[in-house]
Design brief:
Layout lengths: L4 E7 L3 H12 L6 E7 L4 H9 L6 E5 L8 H5 L10 E5 L4 E2 L3 H9 L5 E8 L6 H6 L22 E5 H7 L12 H13 L3 E11 L5 H13 L1 H8 L9 H4 L4 H10 L3 H6 L7 H31 L2
Helix pairs in contact: 1-2, 8-13
Length: 310
């Protein structure tokens, strides 16, 4: 029996979150779907959960040879040879979809070729500074049904025609460490298909942010060191993302901005958090994120120079 959607759920050693995600999938009002559960690494608790849980919907469990740890991009791509439905939906395993999640994605996709970017509502925004920040960044600056910049596509909750995913060969498996995988996929999607990317706030999922601001900034610094230089080299015409125009710019203003970003100013500002003034708090976190990216970028440049002079 063919389904309308293949739903890709990558998971890495998070059985409790995955169980809640599956609970949400069981309650979907749109019945025509199959779930492709893609396991990264050994993830013994996840495998134990799936071995004992009876799921009422069609599904397949996929994993890497020898249970390798390959990162989220390669893990999601495990589904590529198995996708047969006309549409594919991607859902992170720490996101619990609302009962109408898939139905709302279908409402957008059935009207014409597009990408439906769903919303994720963080249930702990009052306690978590990073959750509050990302709840108002990127696609979240737009309203339901708005055409959003293609580089705001996020694969934690998205649906699109399957042929796009097939023809692009999925996500870039060379990107193993944190950050930028969704953006790189969005850049190729835009260059190849020029398809509208729409924000679908009705296709809603819920999640609890499990990282602190300090952990998030450490990840952003690593992103600036590893994956951002990779994206910049692969897509040299895309300097409007992640402040690349400053990082690769040659103007005096670019150099001054990057030099300031490497000072302790952002750390001093972060020390003021949390703040009761939402816009000021977001501005401070935004500065801290850019500073972390700049630090990572400069580490990459230093490492590249050291390697070249050996």
């Amino acid at each position: 029996m063919s389904c309308t959607f293949d739903v890709i759920v990558p998971t890495f050693d998070n059985a409790h979150e995955l169980s809640e995600c599956l609970d949400g999938l069981e309650k979907q009002t749109f019945p025509s779907f199959r779930v492709l559960i893609c396991i990264d690494g050994e993830s013994p608790t996840v495998r134990q959960l799936l071995a004992h849980r009876m799921l009422p919907f069609p599904h397949r469990v996929l994993s890497h040879p020898k249970h390798e740890h390959r990162g989220r991009n390669a893990t999601r791509n495990l589904a590529l040879p198995h996708i047969t439905a006309p549409f594919v939906a991607m859902l992170d395993s720490d996101v619990v979809p609302a009962p109408t999640w898939l139905a709302e994605h279908y409402e957008f996709l059935r009207t014409g070729e597009c990408v439906s970017v769903g919303d994720i509502s963080y249930v702990n925004i009052h306690e978590n500074v990073w959750a509050r920040y990302i709840q108002h960044r990127g696609k979240n600056k737009y309203r339901h049904g708005d055409l959003i910049p293609y580089y705001y596509l996020t694969t934690g909750n998205v649906a699109l025609p399957s042929r796009f995913y097939h023809e692009l060969g999925g996500q870039d498996e060379q990107m193993i460490s944190y950050g930028g995988g969704d953006t790189e996929f969005a850049l190729r999607l835009h260059k190849t298909f020029r398809v509208p990317v729409l924000f679908n706030t009705a296709a809603l999922g819920y999640s609890a942010m499990n990282k602190t601001l300090e952990q998030a900034l450490a990840q952003m610094e690593e992103f600036g060191r590893v994956n951002l230089p990779y994206i910049a080299a692969k897509h040299p015409d895309q300097h409007h993302i992640y402040g690349l125009r400053y990082l690769v710019g040659t103007r005096w203003l670019d150099r001054v901005i990057c030099r300031i970003a490497q000072t302790k100013i952002s750390s001093l500002l972060v020390g003021l958090l949390p703040l009761p003034f939402a816009r000021l708090e977001r501005m401070i976190v935004h500065v801290a994120v850019f500073s972390a990216i700049v630090r990572g970028w400069e580490r990459h440049r230093s490492e590249t120079l050291a390697t070249a002079t050996r």
